[in-house]
Design goal:
alpha+beta; Beta-Lactamase; elongated
Length: about 270
């Protein structure tokens, strides 16, 4: 505390100094109390945020376990990634070993709903990327996330003007030390930058997503025929058991219609 000259050019005496010392001491106590309160409030807010994030991640992970359909799972994962980072749009890409490329499997947040639906239904083939190509390819090859809050400063990004992208976070999805794909979220809402917290939350979602996607892919391999893409007997037995339990639970009548394919044995004998 600093004081100017005393009125009428009078010097400060011992009484003045004692009074000012008392005021300074009380002020110091009050100020320290306020600082401690603000610190505790900040710690409480941080703890509440951590608990909120953990609760959100738990809910996301729990929901993933109940989705066996791969397409629905991918759409759910991407939707959650966009929501938790407050992004405008995003895409989810999976690695195809046969072509050695990253393919866009689902998109969300596009202004053209019809175009978005066609992409998600695989009616439109989007550009794919080789490992190391573009931001997604770099993330896949390095298994490390990339955050760019100003695309104009990164010459690796492809066609930023055409894609209306200002900023991007790209996170790898890794399961059993293998990268199976990447999640891209672009353009944080209200023109803001993506934060470290956004990246950490997205990494946590990506870790859960990788396990769930791998599980769904294994399930698809187990219940579909690689030659025809049709469901095999195992899928029929699982679904039959589900419907029997449903009919029993609701006391409904269950009927089954079975149709055989003419000369399908010839296909099996020829192509395995």
């Amino acid at each position: 505390m600093t004081f100017g000259s005393k009125g009428a050019n009078q010097p400060f005496d011992d009484a003045d100094r004692y009074f000012l010392q008392q005021i300074s001491a009380h002020s110091a106590v009050c100020l320290n109390t306020c600082l401690l309160y603000e610190k505790r409030q900040k710690e409480k807010e941080d703890l509440d945020k951590i608990l909120q994030n953990l609760s959100l991640l738990y809910s996301i992970g729990k929901a993933m376990n109940y989705i066996s359909d791969l397409k629905k799972l991918l759409q759910f994962i991407l939707g959650q990634a966009i929501e938790i980072t407050s992004a405008e749009k995003g895409s989810l890409m999976l690695y195809e070993m046969e072509t050695d490329r990253l393919d866009i499997r689902v998109v969300a947040g596009l202004e053209d709903d019809a175009f978005q639906e066609k992409v998600n239904n695989n009616e439109i083939k989007c550009r794919s990327f080789k490992p190391g190509e573009g931001i997604a390819g770099r993330v896949f090859a390095s298994a490390k996330p990339i955050v760019v809050n100003n695309i104009k400063e990164d010459d690796v990004f492809v066609d930023s003007d055409a894609s209306y992208v200002r900023s991007i976070v790209c996170i790898p999805m890794v399961v059993y030390n293998d990268v199976i794909g990447v999640i891209n979220v672009t353009n944080k809402r209200h023109g803001k930058d993506f934060t470290d917290e956004d990246v950490e939350m997205l990494k946590a979602v990506a870790d859960q997503a990788a396990v769930a996607i791998n599980k769904a892919q294994l399930w698809d391999m187990a219940v579909t025929d690689s030659l025809t893409g049709l469901y095999v007997r195992r899928y029929f037995m699982v679904k039959l058991q589900e419907e029997l339990l449903r009919a029993e639970r609701y006391n409904n009548i269950l009927s089954i219609v079975m149709a055989d394919l003419d000369r399908f044995k010839n296909i099996n004998d020829t192509y395995g």
